[in-house]
UniProtKB/TrEMBL annotation:
Protein name: NAD(P)-binding domain-containing protein
Superkingdom: Bacteria
Pfam families: GDP_Man_Dehyd
Organism name: Streptomyces marokkonensis
Ranges where the NAD(P)-binding domain occurs: 2-104
Length: 126
């Protein structure tokens, strides 16, 4: 397994959500949102990049010593906090996928579908 790069100290916080919840939220905005309005779609799970990296390494049975801290991007925001209450209140949006279960399902999908993604990885490798 290759080293896992992590920007800076990994304290950057993000709101994580399952891709199916994101797509469903976008479709709700498309079909039920008011023209010209802005709707944020969130997952309700805020984690640091360091914490998410640890969860992924655990899911793959890899040691955390694989993490290599790399220089942070200039101007990299420490926190992206998403207020998705408007999508919830006006459109009835709520995430359906529990973060932990969704992450496990995503990891399983990648394990079970190597034939799909490995050729893509080889095409973009230097």
């Amino acid at each position: 397994m290759q080293p896992v790069p992590l920007y800076g100290d990994g304290r950057n916080v993000r709101d994580w959500l399952h891709v199916d919840d994101h797509c469903r939220g976008v479709d709700l905005v498309r079909t039920r949102g008011r023209a010209g309005e802005v709707y944020n779609i969130g997952g309700g799970t805020e984690l640091t990049n360091r914490d998410l990296t640890g969860l992924l390494l655990d899911a793959f049975g890899a040691d955390r010593d694989r993490v290599v801290h790399v220089e942070d991007r200039k101007g990299h925001d420490l926190r992206y906090s998403v207020d998705w209450s408007k999508a919830r209140d006006e459109l009835g949006y709520r995430p359906r996928h529990d973060f932990t279960a969704g992450l496990a399902a995503t990891v399983s999908w990648y394990r079970d579908n190597r034939a799909w993604w490995e050729p893509l990885k080889r095409r973009v490798a230097p």
